[in-house]
Design a protein that fits this description.
Layout lengths: L7 E4 L5 H10 L4 E4 L3 H10 L2 E2 L3 H7 L2 E4 L4 H9 L13 E4 L5 H13 L3 E4 L2 E2 L1 H7 L2 E6 L2 H11 L3 E8 L3 H29 L4 H9 L6 H12 L8 H18 L4 H15 L10 H9 L3 H10 L3
Parallel strand pairs: 1-2, 1-4, 2-3, 4-5, 5-6, 8-9
Antiparallel strand pairs: 7-8
Length: 309
């Protein structure tokens, strides 16, 4: 292992964080990890990482801390809470928060770090669990240009498209926009696929046609089998996408932007959560529309595949 490689702390070993941490190990970085789920920590330790007992301990050992957490309160707890990472703040230290949170929270962390001579980057990602596993994430980064250049080699082990989009909080602003687009595309695909299938078209051939023209989308590329087969293991959970849309709508109110389609899809995802589907993949948005139509695309597909040719 290259002794010049900085030691990286990684907190948050969920669906996204665990494969991201594995990619850092593969890139040769010494890694110390922390998660509330002991099995996740054990998995990374077996792959070569070291376990940390608290966020403060991880931050104290690491030259660079990466966090991948569900929401703003989780990030605040890890950085600012008791035994939090900022208890180990020191000049020259760098934190890269890759969670999807409110831009205001990222700015607070940046200000606190700067006062101690440290730096932060807000670097949320797009590309889902498959992108995390393949190391092909799109990473949108807010922070100083100097911190970005320092963090870039580490981010290159995690993603393929890495763009510095502005000062602290800008990464989260762009992520909010990204999540708006993804949600609306999922909604559009769901409506089109349901309409065509209930009207009698073969759903697999519908997808083939959509992917061959202007309607082609990464949503169908990555979530085709979920939507056609009716299997919605996450992936990216509805409740987390719902959180992102709420962040986007809050930002819209703060900046004087009207997002009527976002508000509609946010309500659809809220209905999914109320129906007990908040832990499913966000592509399960189609099931709410299927409920209203009294029809299941997966059932129609099964019938089509079972029919004689």
């Amino acid at each position: 292992m290259d002794a010049a490689q900085p030691t990286i702390g990684f907190i948050g070993l969920g669906i996204m964080g665990r494969p991201m941490a594995r990619n850092l190990l593969k890139a040769g970085y010494p890694l110390i990890v922390r998660d509330v789920v002991p099995e996740a920590v054990a998995d990374l330790v077996a792959a070569g990482a070291t376990a940390g007992a608290s966020a403060r301990e991880v931050a104290a050992v690491a030259d660079v801390l990466i966090t991948m957490l569900p929401d703003s309160p989780d990030v605040e707890q890890v950085y600012l809470g008791q035994d939090g990472a900022f208890e180990a703040l020191r000049p020259g230290w760098l934190a890269i928060d890759m969670s999807s949170i409110a831009p205001s929270t990222s700015r607070v962390l940046a200000e606190r770090a700067k006062a101690a001579g440290a730096e932060t980057l807000d670097a949320p990602v797009s590309g889902g669990d498959k992108g995390a596993q393949a190391g092909t994430l799109s990473i949108m980064v807010g922070g100083s240009p100097e911190a970005f250049e320092r963090g870039r080699p580490i981010l290159e082990a995690l993603g393929k498209t890495i763009v510095h989009v502005g000062p602290a909080g800008a990464g989260q602003v762009v992520k909010a926009a990204n999540q708006v687009v993804v949600a609306l595309v999922i909604g559009a695909v769901s409506e089109g696929l349901l309409l065509a299938t209930k009207a009698g078209a073969d759903p697999d051939r519908v997808v083939e046609i959509l992917q061959g023209g202007l309607a082609s989308t990464r949503v169908l590329e990555m979530r085709r089998e979920n939507m056609l087969g009716g299997h919605f293991e996450p992936g990216f959970r509805v409740r987390l996408h719902l959180k992102d849309l709420r962040n986007a709508l809050t930002l819209a109110r703060e900046t004087g932007v009207v997002l009527p389609l976002t508000a509609e899809v946010e309500q659809q995802m809220q209905a999914l959560r109320i129906a007990g589907r908040g832990e499913l993949d966000h592509s399960s948005l189609i099931t709410m529309l299927e409920d209203l139509a009294g029809f299941r695309v997966a059932d129609a597909r099964a019938a089509t595949q079972g029919a004689p040719h």
